[in-house]
């Protein structure tokens, strides 16, 4: 099953560019057009990585990020904020909202692809660690339930 990447941007040319940049990766790409649409699509599409524009209608990228990271059901989604904002206050605000990383526009293709690849690898490793943790807990539970001989 390929990884899923959601592009959240209200500017269609930006979406098309990001889709073209990701075309070489084995990922399923979804698109959201505003902040509320992003929250809805994350719930249904369940992306591994979210490319999140900051300046969007309805709900800002900062608010979307904060909501996703504070919800246990969506907190493991890796968020890469993609923004034209590059003031240090904006970067601090993104970090405070819980972003995993950020890129400034105009986006460099190589940098974007590498960061998405790294986020997908990290997500896979995190999933594997969680699977192993559950396996160990199950083995320990079984040990305590088995009668002594």
Question: Top keywords for this entry?
Answer:
elongated, 5 helices, 53% helix, single chain, 5-stranded parallel β-sheet, 149 residues, alpha/beta
Which stretches are low in confidence, meaning pLDDT under 50 for 5 or more residues running?
none
C-alpha Rg (nearest Å): 18 Å
Quote the distance from N terminus to C terminus. Answer: 44 Å
Indicate the percent of residues in helices: 40-55%
Strand residue content: 15-25%
Treating each run of at least 4 consecutive H or I residues as one helix, how many helices? 5
* Overall mean confidence score, pLDDT: 90
Question: What does this protein look like?
Answer:
With 149 residues, the protein is of the alpha/beta class. 53% of the residues lie in helices and 18% in strands. It has a five-stranded parallel β-sheet with strand order 2-1-3-4-5, with helices on both faces. Helix 1 links the parallel strand 1 (3-8) and strand 2 (27-32). Helix 2 runs parallel beside helix 3 and helix 3 (61-70) packs parallel to helix 4. The chain starts with a strand and ends with a helix.
The gist of it:
By secondary structure, the chain is an alpha/beta fold.
How are the SSEs placed, and which strands pair?
Layout lengths: L2 E6 L3 H11 L4 E6 L2 H11 L3 E5 L7 H10 L7 E6 L4 H10 L3 E4 L4 H37 L4
Parallel strand pairs: 1-2, 1-3, 3-4, 4-5
Helix pairs in contact: 2-3, 3-4
């Amino acid at each position: 099953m390929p990884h899923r990447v959601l592009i959240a941007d209200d500017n269609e040319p930006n979406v098309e560019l990001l889709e073209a940049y990701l075309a070489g990766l084995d990922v399923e790409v979804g698109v959201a057009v505003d902040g509320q649409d992003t929250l809805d699509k994350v719930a249904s599409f369940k992306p591994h990585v979210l490319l999140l524009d900051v300046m969007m209608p309805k709900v800002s990228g900062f608010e979307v990020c904060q909501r996703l990271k504070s919800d246990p059901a969506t907190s493991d989604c890796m968020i890469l904020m993609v923004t034209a904002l590059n003031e240090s206050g904006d970067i601090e605000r993104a970090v405070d909202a819980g972003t995993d990383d950020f890129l400034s526009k105009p986006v460099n293709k190589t940098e974007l692809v590498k960061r998405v690849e790294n986020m997908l690898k990290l997500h896979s490793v995190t999933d594997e660690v969680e699977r192993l943790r559950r396996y160990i807990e199950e083995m320990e539970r079984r040990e305590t339930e088995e009668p002594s001989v």
